[in-house]
Amino acid sequence: MTDPTGLEQARTKMTEAGVAPAAIETFARFYHLLQSGASGMIREDDIDPLVDIPNRAELTIDDDEAAAALAKTAMLKLNGGLGTSMGMDQAKSLLPVRVAPASSEGAGSGEPEMLTFLDIIVGQLRAAREATGARLPLLFMNSFRTRDDSLAALERYPDLAVDGLPVDFLQNREPKLLADDLTPVTWEKDPELEWCPPGHGDLYPALHASGVVVALLEAGFRYMCVSNSDNLGATPDATIAGWFAASGAPYAAELCRKTPADVKGGQIVIRKSDGQMVQRETAQTHPDDVAASLDATRHPFFHTNNLWFNLEALAAELERTSGVLELPLIRNDKTVDPSDASSPKVVQIESAMGAAVAVFEGATAIEVERSRFLPVKTTNDLLVLRSDVYDLTPDYRLEAQALAPLVDLDKDHYKLIDAFTERFAAGAPSLRDADSLTVRGDWTFGSGVRVEGKAQLVGDGGTVPDGATVGPEGF
Question: Count of CB atoms within 10 A of residue 429's CB?
Answer without folding.
Answer: 24
